[in-house]
Amino acid sequence: xxxxxxxxxxxxxxxxxxxxxxxxxxxxxxxxxxxxxxxxxxxxxxxxxxxxxxxxxxxxxxxxxxxxxxxxxxxxxxxxxxxxxxxxxxxxxxxxxxxxxxxxxxxxxxxxxxxxxxxxxxxxxxxxxxxxxxxxxxxxxxxxxxxxxxxxxxxxxxxxxxxxxxxxxxxxxxxxxxxxxxxxxxxxxxxxxxxxxxxxxxxxxxxxxxxxxxxxxxxxxxxxxxxxxxxxxxxxxxxxxxxxxxxxxxxxxxxxxxxxxxxxxxxxxxxxxxxxxxxxxxxxxxxxxxxxxxxxxxxxxxxxxxxxxxxxxxxxxxxxxxxxxxxxxxxxxxxxxxxxxxxxxxxxxxxxxxxxxxxxxxxxxxxxxxxxxxxxxxxxxxxxxx
Length: 386
Ligand code: SAH
Ligand code: SF4
Description:
single chain, alpha/beta, DNA polymerase, domain 1, TIM Barrel, 2 domains, 10-stranded mixed β-sheet, two-stranded parallel sheet, 13 helices, 14 strands, globular, binds S-adenosyl-L-homocysteine, binds iron/sulfur cluster
């Protein structure tokens, strides 16, 4: 069986080269072809000797996930549904802004953690994504956006269209500046529950011979898997966002069930440990604004007291509804009042703009196509019929 070279970081490619009797510098050349030039076949790799190209073609492939659909929102946000086999699909979103382009990447097919306000969580869990499927999202985004650079700037509303792998081939040797300047692991799934594959993909995002992003421009968002946060700090300390969503354990236990295992005080201690190695001197706390649930002034004041020893910024996310969700979005007045309390206490607080509304590309709306293996959805259906 052929190996998929998209599964390898520099270390993995070096080992592969050693196994086939090639010099280590070939790993660097391959990285550049695959990730910088978007090459999907070996024939185009002009600085590799022809016999080597032919040999590679017999033993390896460069195979990103297939493109199932491509949607463009009126605000320029772009969403791709990528096929990951067995009828499953994952979503990747590109959000262009004036001075940066952010790609929101998925890490799992579904999610097992079942946060009660999250569309991915409601679908149950199928499996972890491979490295090729994780980095393949960035590979696709660069390939598609660089083949049509006009689509990368804010305000453009590109025409939706599905290209085959041919779209990628046309961008080989493209020298246009990279459209994706920032990556956030805030798509489907809990990245730290797929630790090894996510970290290998992070290696590629940071590698100067691949995507060359700085650690500050790559953010992992977690619901708070403490042991994995500690491992990330040691292995690859990129920027960290933590989904807090509640100022006390009683409420967080309901919203983010993993809190029963890793309660808030331990989570905050892990955040402070992380800061010693983090590329930024604060943790970003995400806080979804749920009408009448976690959005009162009392909650805001409790939150201020809670984080007083933890250098942090807040990102308030207006709840994005999805079919069958039982929550409502807080009113804009409630969100503004909540923000004011945090700001008056000296906490830098932003309210996340909702982008890509018209194509269901906003935070927490990514649904993809998940065949639930945990059978949570069928259990739920059973309960509803009781
Ligand atoms: N599993 C990770 C990352 C993916 S979710 C995590 O939970 O952090 C990215 C962010 O979107 C998280 O902060 C998550 O809590 C938030 N989110 C999930 N569902 C949402 C919804 N319906 N509306 C707004 N934000 C949501
Ligand atoms: Fe999973 Fe994050 Fe959704 Fe919770 S919010 S269910 S951890 S994807």
